[in-house]
Amino acid sequence: MSKRLPIADLLPQRSAKNATALKNLADPCESLAIQGDEAMQDTPKQFCKVGKRVDITNLLLTLESAAVLTGIPLRTIRYNAAAGNYPGALKIPGNGGDSWSIPLFSLPIPAQAAYVKQTKAALQPSGASSLSDDERATLWARLEGATDKCIARAERAMAALRLWLCLMLQGVSRMEAYRAIKREFNAHRTAFNRWQTAVVGLDEADWLPALVPDYSGCTNRPLAEWPGQSLQFFCLSASAPGRSVAAAYRDTVREAALRGWGKLPSQKTAGRVWAAIPPPQKAILRGDDKALKALSPTPRGVYEAIDLHAEWVGDGRVLDVNAVDVNGKFGEKGKTGRLTLYAFEEKRTRYALGVAFGWTLNTDLVRAAFLNASDTAGKRIPRLIHVDNGREVANNNLTGGVSTRKRWITKEFDPIGVFPALGIEVSFATVANGQSKPVERMFGTLARGVETRPEFRKAYKGHSPDNKPAEYDEKQAIPVESLIAAYKAEIDRYNNTPHRGDGMNGKTPLQVFNALAAHTEVRPMTPAMRRVCLLSVARVNINKTTGTFTIPGTGGATYWSQQTSECNPNQKGYSVRYNPNDLNEPVTLYLGSKIVAANVPPQRVYAGRNAQQASENNKAKRVWRKTQAAAAKALVAIDPVIAPEAKALLLAQFLEATGGGAGEMPVCQPAPGKVVALPRPGIELPEKPSELTPEQKAKFAVFDALTMPERTKKRLAG
């Protein structure tokens, strides 16, 4: 017989700091103290014998414990107890107010099962689970792949098993427990026994996946049969753009009747078959490369790993607003149309560096935007630019010599464009791959902020003729100056607006740009590099007769210098850099990436008969001829043992080329440092004497090296 304890002594013990995690649950000794029942002096574990009846009203819980088990607020539990909703509840008077003890049996079944779980009561003996790691992984994988309906069935079975544990803990007989489970869960005894068998030897943590129904391998459902080639015909018909399943099924029925394929499945079955085809395969059947590309795995860029000015992204866009050039800013006065915008954006910071406006998207517009971006970046240039493969960029002026261009075949002697000449790597975006260019996102923001303004509504034309607004008026064009000012203001607002993109951390593009620029070393643009960027490049050919070259597309601008007259006219790969805005400036002639002639002036021109200009021109010609003749004489005089026949032939050819008479030899000597090596004309020398001394052989070798044409050397070398 245990000694009864007063309530005043039990409450401090239950609220002690070192109380166990189950301090809110009912204590058997506390129930004895409250009720005075000598039969409940032992713990509940001694009443787990099957078939023995006990009075479960002796298991009392506090209000806090009942609230935790049921999930009902404490205030509601107290109200229900006072209202008599919990049969057998006992009222406990106290100094701080009345309290209640709630019988366990009066709570809902899930609450009773939760009590059993908290007290760690189990049906099977305690011990480790019989499942291995692989078996447990397979079991839980089946739970993850189960449907919501199957998971609900497993949860229902698990609640029934917990109720069984609660009833067995209270000493209820098996038949009474079966009847209780039948009432609560409408579960037959056979089904319950199957649930018990499924969890035998398992830890309670593994019960839920073990109770999930396993329908793998079930083939009771008959498969629909598609006779002949009806299924292939239906899929091909349904894959047509805009074709519905009903129309494709009607086509298949007609085709089956013509070819005698037999009876087809229903239209509903055909719809399920088409819906079951994966979207990538549907995209392939429809020939939708854009949808297939969107479904393919796309890597996600990490912007924080990109350095400042490591990449600039450039692109152009035609504005959707009708504009008028009142003052002739871009050429013809009064011209109306849609302006074109080209912009460069710094990829890491999303900072809009430079923009340029014009009527057409061409090389000069891209060049102007690039120079503007370099000025904004503090005379800096990037390591790489990422642009479209359009004609405005993929040309010899800007990207000549870049092997990744797909618009033209890269040739050996292509002129070097501006970006390769500056040491900038060029990357071209693939077709229909706008997500690779972040500047497209900026264009959308700018267009919504400017082109759809209320003051521009009658000039807004829409993106295409199909969505042109009805209120559009051709006469309500916006002056280009107003439109450009609105765009520049919007770009400034964009650079000072917080960005939610990767690596931005809610800061504005300008803030991130300034923070990174403080400790990032970037290659500067020198004045010489800026001059290269301002010039255009074109391929030219040296005239075989005059030694001049003409720049195509300039109206016949022709250039000549002493260096150009000495160039080999049969050589391919000459290019010239020139100022398209001033053709009177000297130009630079290149052979590939090597400078052949610098500061080549334009050819002299004069109108009519001008004696002074003609005299100066003739004087310049005489000086040039004498210089060439002196260079030829100095060249031949280096070998005094040359055969007389060869020397006479060599002199005759040089004198003929320079306009001198036969047998005449200029007496003037070339100025020091002005003797240049010329392309040697082909000369067939007579056979050399067989009795030559070693000194003579060495002198002939020097002569051969100077006079023999390059093609002859290659032929003799094999």
- Give me the number of helical elements: 27
Number of strands: 15
Low-pLDDT stretches: 1-57, 120-127, 661-690
Distance from first to last alpha carbon: 121 Å
Strand content: 5-15%
User: What is the averaged pLDDT score?
Assistant: 76
Q: What radius of gyration results from the CA coordinates?
A: 48 Å
Write down the overall geometry: elongated
**Which structural category do the helix and sheet elements fall into?**
alpha+beta
Percent helix, as a range, is 25-40%
How would a crystallographer describe the biggest sheet? Answer: 6 strands, mixed
Word description of this protein:
By secondary structure, the protein is α+β, with helices and mostly antiparallel strands. Helix 7 (about 150-170) runs antiparallel to helix 8 (about 175-185) and helix 24 packs antiparallel against helix 25 (about 645-660). About 25% of the residues are buried.
